[in-house]
């Protein structure tokens, strides 16, 4: 910690890459808490003057940390989900929160489609089949499932859900969705029951927020409604799917397949997943392209500058909007 951390304006809980860290440190007096061996102590000793905190959905922000920053007015978080930030504590202290919506919609939707196509057309298995020489020794590859023209159900027709749906129309798919509330402006049909949506759909893509309110929304009943020819894809949070129920459904052939970017206890996974060809996995990389990660870091920076200069965040989360 150097002299610029005295009387700091910004507390940085998470590094967002060299370019962002340098840009932030050039513009403001920053306390880089992520460099500290004992962050809580550094926060107690030096956090009193900070008006803005920078964090990420991975690093989060606790009630205890908020209490150690009595001058805190705004939190600029990297990532669109913010279930790891204590929003109630922020509201109680009058602290505003911003996240990084929209800039990642296309990349996350692209990855949902990569997973959907991988499980339906068995592309990861086919890759191993060719590279492992099985094409030469065994011959023809087993038949898979057509995607084009099928029924696409979306759980969570928000920004990312809409980008996934738009790609579905390019595959001539009929799209329906389930939210807590119907979106009158959406061109797709609303279904108030998730079980009925799963019964109707060939592919169910999960794109709602994580956290307690959506925990295990996709349970055994929903997976059974999707059925042995149905597929589930999850790019939201691992907590939304009951992973034990998913494992049983896949093992017993009650579900056709699954594509998961997120796991309930990531990076851990059930042992049985390792040998399942009907399951495609990715290590939580929905937004992880050079392009989108740069855009997300820039949006965090722009939020910090905007708050410092105008007292307003560019992309405030709903709970702390004026
Ligand atoms: P968003 O625009 O806020 O959309 C979320 C949608 O979920 C809304 O339409 C909301 O509608 C619906 N929803 C919320 N609670 C629900 C419930 N209990 N049942 C049914 N629908 C519900 O958010 P977004 O920007 O699209 O992002 C969605 C989520 O994607 C994020 O929260 C994050 O967890 C995840 N994500 C993952 C990655 C990745 O790397 N894999 C990257 C970015 C984001 P109602 O309010 O009407 O219910």
Mean pLDDT: 96
Bound compounds, each kind once, are: NADP nicotinamide-adenine-dinucleotide phosphate
What is the succession of H and E elements?
EHEHEHEHEHHHEHEEHEHEHEEH
Q: What is the annotated CATH architecture of the largest domain?
A: 3-Layer(aba) Sandwich
> pLDDT under 50 segments (min length 5)?
none
What characteristic shape results from the CA principal axes? elongated
Strand count, sense and barrel status of the largest sheet are: 7 strands, parallel
Portion of residues within helices: 25-40%
Q: What gyration radius follows from the Cα positions, in whole Å?
A: 22 Å
For the biggest β-sheet, the strand order reads 8-7-6-9-10-11-12
Residue fraction in strands = 5-15%
Detailed description of the structure:
- The strands form two sheets. The protein has a seven-stranded parallel sheet with strand order 8-7-6-9-10-11-12, sandwiched between helices.
- The radius of gyration is 22 Å and the shape is elongated.
- It has helices at residues 18-27, 39-46, 63-67, 87-92, 105-121, 123-131, 134-137, 159-170, 194-200, 220-226, 243-251, 290-310; strands at residues 10-12, 30-32, 52-56, 74-78, 96-98, 151-155, 174-178, 189-190, 203-206, 231-234, 257-260, 279-281.
- The two termini are 35 Å apart.
- Helix 11 links the parallel strand 10 (231-234) and strand 11.
- The chain is 36% helix and 14% strand.
- The chain is α/β, with parallel strands linked by helices.
- The chain contains twelve helices and twelve strands.
- It folds into two domains: 3-101 and 291-320, NAD(P)-binding Rossmann-like Domain (Rossmann fold, 3-Layer(aba) Sandwich); 105-281, NAD(P)-binding Rossmann-like Domain (Rossmann fold), CATH 3.40.50.720.
- The longest helix has 21 residues, at 290-310.
- Bound molecules: NADP nicotinamide-adenine-dinucleotide phosphate (NAP).
- NADP nicotinamide-adenine-dinucleotide phosphate binds next to helix 8.
């Amino acid at each position: 910690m150097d002299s610029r951390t005295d009387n700091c304006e910004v507390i940085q809980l998470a590094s967002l890459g060299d370019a962002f860290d340098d840009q932030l440190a050039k513009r403001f007096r920053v306390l880089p808490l992520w460099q500290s061996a004992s962050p809580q102590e550094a926060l107690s000793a030096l956090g009193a003057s900070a008006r803005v905190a920078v964090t990420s959905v991975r690093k989060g922000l606790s009630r205890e940390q908020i209490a150690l920053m009595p001058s805190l007015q705004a939190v600029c978080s990297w990532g669109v989900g913010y279930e790891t930030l204590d929003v109630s504590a922020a509201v109680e202290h009058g602290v505003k929160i911003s996240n990084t919506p929209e800039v990642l919609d296309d990349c996350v939707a692209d990855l949902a489609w990569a997973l959907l196509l991988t499980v339906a057309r068995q592309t990861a298995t086919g890759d191993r089949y060719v590279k492992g020489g099985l094409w030469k020794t065994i011959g023809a590859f087993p038949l898979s499932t057509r995607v084009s023209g099928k029924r696409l159900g979306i759980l969570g027709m928000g920004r990312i859900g809409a980008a996934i749906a738009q790609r579905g129309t390019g595959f001539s798919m009929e799209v329906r969705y389930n939210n807590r509330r119907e979106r009158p402006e959406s061109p797709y049909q609303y279904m108030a029951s998730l079980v009925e949506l799963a019964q109707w759909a060939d592919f169910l893509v999960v794109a709602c927020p994580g956290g307690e309110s959506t925990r295990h929304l996709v349970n055994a009943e929903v997976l059974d409604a999707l059925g042995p020819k149905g597929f589930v894809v999850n790019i939201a949070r691992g907590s939304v799917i009951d992973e034990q129920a998913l494992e049983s459904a896949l093992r017993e052939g009650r579900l056709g397949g699954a594509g998961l970017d997120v796991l309930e206890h990531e990076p851990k996974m059930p042992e049985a997943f390792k040998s399942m060809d009907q399951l495609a996995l990715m290590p939580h990389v929905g937004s992880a392209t050079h392009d989108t990660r740069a855009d997300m870091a820039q949006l965090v920076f722009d939020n910090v500058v905007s708050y410092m200069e105008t007292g307003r965040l560019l992309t405030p989360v709903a709970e702390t909007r004026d």
